[in-house]
Amino acid sequence: MQWTTRPIASTLCTLAMAGWGLLTPPTAAQPVQPPCPILPSLAASAGAQNSGERLTVDGLLLSRYAAGLRGNALVAGSGLQPSNATAVESFIAARTGTSLDWDGDLAFTPRDATLIARRMAGLRGDALAAGLPAGGAPRTTAQVSDFIAGNCYTEGSGYARALQLGLYFYEGQESGALSPGNRVPWRGPSHLDDGADVGRDLSGGWYDAGDHWKSNLTMAYSGAMLALSRINFPLAYQRADQNSALINSLRHVNDYFLKTINDPNPGSTTNFSGYEIAIDIAGKSDDGNPAEPSPNLHSVWTGAELTDGFTVRQTLRVNTTVRGPDVAAAMAASMAGAAWVLHAQGDSSKAATYLTTARKLFAYARAYPFDAASTTSGGFPRALTPSGALFQVGYRAPNATSGLMLAAAMLFQAENTSGLGNAANAAAYLNFATDVISNPTSYGFDATWDVFAWWRETGSGNTMFPALQLWLALQPANTTIQNQASFLRTYLDKWRLASPSQADGYRVTPGGLAYRNSLGDSFLLQNNMNTTAVAAAYGLRSGQTVYYTWAKTQLDYVLGGNPAGRSYVVGYGSNWPKKLHHRGASGSWTGFDGITPGKPGYQEFDRHTLFGAMPGGPKRDDSFADDRTHAHSEPGLNFSPGLIGALAAVVSEESNVGAIDSFLPTPSSNLRNTSTDWATTDREFFAEARLAGSSTTHVSVDLKINNRSRWPARITTTNKLRFFFALNAGTSVGDLTATVSNGPPNVSVGSPTLLRAGIGYVDVDFTGERLSPHFVWQARLVPVTPPKTGSPDTLYVRSATLRLAFASGKGIGLTAHSLAGTSTTNIIQPLIAVYESNTLVGGVVP
């Protein structure tokens, strides 16, 4: 990056005169480094001739904005016209709680302006924070530096942090019991009874996308690609300190695969009597005949922790009669790759288990190819329901060969690893690969060039290209395999040399993103990143660096180097998607209403940050509407492996990849709004109250108990409210009688009890009521205990009327404790305590 050689002191002086009054000149001993601009430049339209001039203008604008200046006062003297003020204001406003919030307090203040100015001027370390204006700041100086490294795109220093974020995404997708060290504060255990319909424990694994579908094929694809990124670029994981995060994810998914296999003969790789694999849970029917059981996984919009009892999660299986070689091959690739990674990190025992299992999966996929009983008349794979009926589920591949090619490569590498495999076994996997290459038509392949996507197995789709990349790296002297380098290069050149109107359908957006035109405007990043990862790995491992160079341009587009200056990786850069098509991240407590404008509880932006998620991305004109549409805003398991593979290549290759965030999730992502505004509060458990009536002999209060838990969301059945009151002079708790009415069947009321002198309380107990933070609009076909009725069923709230009666001359105060501020208008009343069992979870005790 070019920048002016203007002395730092002179630059600081200029900035100070221009409005950066908070700057403190550095001492001569403080380090000076090239500055870090914000992307895109605020002053781009001002005609700045170099980065130094641009930084000065950007600094002026940011400082003025932090000081409260707007309109012409914001841009005067900056080189911008008054007409530019609105655009500058909008740009800064969109980033005040994200990339411009450097001190982590969820606001853009003079503290942030000072930090940014000093960073732009070249200051680092303690020089950043010396003499800052007063104010709370969750981030330490070191954390500020880490944060800046991940948000300073043009300095080229965010790749390591982007890799860190990409791996975090998989923690957000976990099903079952969470993996050790899971960092996602809004996730909890979920679907622990998966597999109950076939009498097995099938909890675990990853959810496919923004719903709660578990597909072994997409899980295995992701597991294999993650392992491959580590096989190709171990240095990247060392430099970014991400080995532990990667291994935790590989364990989580591959341990789940162990659960899915029922093998009565585990000591044999040839005896498949009784062999069965559970390949899918809650999957959608691919043809609607038959349809999946109702209500299905898409009928509810809520966190995974809450859907038990509200959707049917059917288990689908394959065996030697209804076969699943496609899924078994992909699982073999994932488990063999994980075996190599874990062995390299010192876990030889688990590595051996994975490798043994992968061998048998590979043997099963070879011994039981698809046949007429396993597919429809159109050739689409089927599986068995719990009742034994045939079911055509989505996320299947009609040809297992490319999965077997990748599995063979992974197994070959593992078998040739000292202390892990058996070198004698490796020859069989090499022989299989060379046979496929020599006789492609015998394995269902032709010369059709197709997009690299997880669901395409015909032609040369899916894992054939990463398989070839790995085989080419493993067998540099094997002529049969090396002859396929031209096959791979021809495919990659279709993408690398794409033009806006390329005849064969591989095109490029005006901003430089290559895509396959036949797919329309949908999922451009999924297919691009998967190809980009192969290009980067092939380019670096083969020495054909032109492919790596192209891959880096595509990665940079995703990280913010595009016309909109938008990062498509959540949590990275200055402007990422805020409205994912993702049930968990949205944090809705009113179901679909929470994402529907005008409905109760509507929240425009996701309440949770799913760091590292990459959605489908822009349209072919580079435009992106951040609007929760499935095709552009939904992240998925099959999207992220390409991103991670490309990042691993760049982190391994480039000299300046920056630092990871030492505190993830960031402090600002966990701050909560504790206001008493019904629509926006982040309170998880709270009471509402309205004074229903009062006289000389009674007080009646309409009460509501709310479960809006989101850190994580959870269903509760043992909640109670504790209502506090002040005893009038001469009144004891024995003078009061408490009753409850207008409530659900399980509500009860306790006896008035003395808390301490002059203060009493009464419990309104909702134990037995199932409180769950979401709406359910559908007819509920899954039994729920106790049963609920109503449509919609507002599951997050229950109501009751508390009446406290007393003799004339006795009574309680109407303005103290839980009645303070209570009127005939309903309010959130934090002075009523909320308990789960006997643990205080909301409100306060006087």
Write a structural description.
The chain is of the alpha+beta class and 846 residues long. The strands form six sheets. Strands 11, 13, 14, 15, 20 and 21 form a six-stranded antiparallel sheet that branches. A five-stranded antiparallel sheet has the order 12-18-10-9-19, with no helix packed on it. The protein contains 24 helices and 21 strands. The protein folds into three domains: 8-156, no CATH class; 161-655, Alpha/alpha barrel (Glycosyltransferase); 685-842, Immunoglobulin-like (Sandwich), CATH 2.60.40.
What's the gist of this structure?
With 846 residues, the protein is of the alpha+beta class. The chain is 33% helix and 11% strand.
Key phrases:
5-stranded antiparallel β-sheet; 24 helices; alpha+beta; single chain; 846 residues; globular
